[in-house]
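## retry 2 of 3
previous attempt timed out at serialization; input unchanged, resubmitting
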Amino acid sequence: MKTDRRSLLIGGSALLAGLSLARAKGRDTEIWTFDSLTRIGGLTPLIEGAPKLIDGPLGKAVAFDGANDVLFLDRHPLAGAARFTFEALFRPDGGAFEQRWFHLESGEDPDPTAKTGTRMLFEIRVVEREWYLDTFILGPGYRQPLIVPEKRFPVGRWHHVAQSYDGTTYCAFVNGALQAEAALAFTPQGPGRASVGMRMNKVSPFRGAVRQVAFTRGEALAPDRFALKIPR
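## retry succeeded, writing output
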């Protein structure tokens, strides 16, 4: 059967217009903007609790209550990447000490509570009205947290966080400043899924908001080339 080229073009344009993601020009970067509760990163989230869409100085964002709110998305955007940069714009609002708020999990791990498996996480630790970053990466033959409790930041404000791997070194950043780094024998992670607002097994919920997340495959970006704008 002969396919109408014009119909394909129209249909393809409509599909692209419906995706809430953007590709950064000149590099393989995918950006998820949390400006909807029905479509994020071209995916339909599974929602538990009652996360809310809010307005903020950076644009719309999704707010989480620190107790029951979580989004599950059926994709691991950095699967297969041997080098990567993982960024986020978020606002922590205090709450419990340990909050695991963005979790990428490879599907081959059947038990996200286990000490083994394959995952990447953004976490924070809250101390009174301040927080510090804890990034974590786990896979076959590697297990590496990056955490510096002395480097603290105020809650209630928007911040940029990032983690990256350049082929030899795993790094963590807050607002463009290096927090910690470690040598790592990383291997690419497999396809999987994501949770936002708490860990995949529904522990350590997040109190705050998420505006955007960026996934760059194949490159560890320097802070002056980050895909997301650092709040000032």
